[in-house]
Amino acid sequence: MTHFLDINKTAPTELRAMIDQAAAMKAARAGRPKGAPDDTQPLAGRMVALIFEKPSTRTRVSFDMGVRQMGGQTMVLTGSEMQLGHGETIADTARVLSRYVDMIMLRTYEEDVLLEMADHATVPVINGLTNRTHPCQIMADILTYEEHRGPIAGKKVVWCGDGNNVFASFAHAAGQFGFDLTFSGPEPLDPERVFLEEARAKGANVEIIRDPARAVAGADLVVTDTWVSMHDSQTTRERRHNQLRPYQVNEALMKHAKPDALFMHCLPAHRNEEVTDAVMDGPQSVVFDEAENRLHAQKAVMRWCLGV
Description:
Shape: globular
Radius of gyration: 19 Å
Family: Belongs to the aspartate/ornithine carbamoyltransferase superfamily. OTCase family.
Distance between the termini: 14 Å
Enzyme class: transferase
Number of helices: 13
Keywords: Cytoplasm, Transferase
Structural class: alpha/beta
GO biological process, one term: L-arginine biosynthetic process via ornithine
Organism: Roseicyclus marinus
Helix content: 40-55%
Order of helices and strands: HEHEHHEHEHEHEHEHEHHEHH
């Protein structure tokens, strides 16, 4: 069974093929209405279950549109409707869904839920996000960087802020796509060391630099993410703001990067917290290309999972 669970679990040659196919599919439908079908309909007759335990805008819309453009149909389900792991075991849910649909995309909290779903499903399972990783976002980010600046191999990517699930997938990608990765954030919010060690074992130059200006020096790409999540308490929000304020991506910080460096953010952004309006809306920002490319990258991921 071909699941897409994490970037580090997929061979570099297959990741490269997906990025190239995403770029080709995007180019082939340039100028068309958003709802117009692709010339080829590789998902014709296929049903895809989109399961959301966590709320979503980009993941929900991009997967739904991607399936429709490729001729398939979607069934959108929420965690409250399904009670994953409560009213029925995750394993049994996986077995049942596999009798009805051709593929499952799961956006959930705990990685164990995703892994158990994949272990027991007899159809492909795609990781739409867990608290640990966010591989579809980084596939879109690789596509976005390369359409603006060419191959990402050998480039310097700098992450400013919290060592969260999006950073973890960047670390996976550094090892698979061959770029250098620097984390710059406060020590209490460091990423899990295992992500850094794995990237290094695959030949990537990965480091932690606390001083954001020194970290960003010579960067080809600067990335950040929101400082707080929707479930954080007010006390947590205040603490994280105090910890992360020195790592705000603003015009002064971007001046330390290369003149043609790009800025990315997976969105939603809390403007003038982790990133200023001037950077978010400035000439180096490609955040809305990133958002669009969720659609194209995930279409390639779905085709790879189904072998179509």
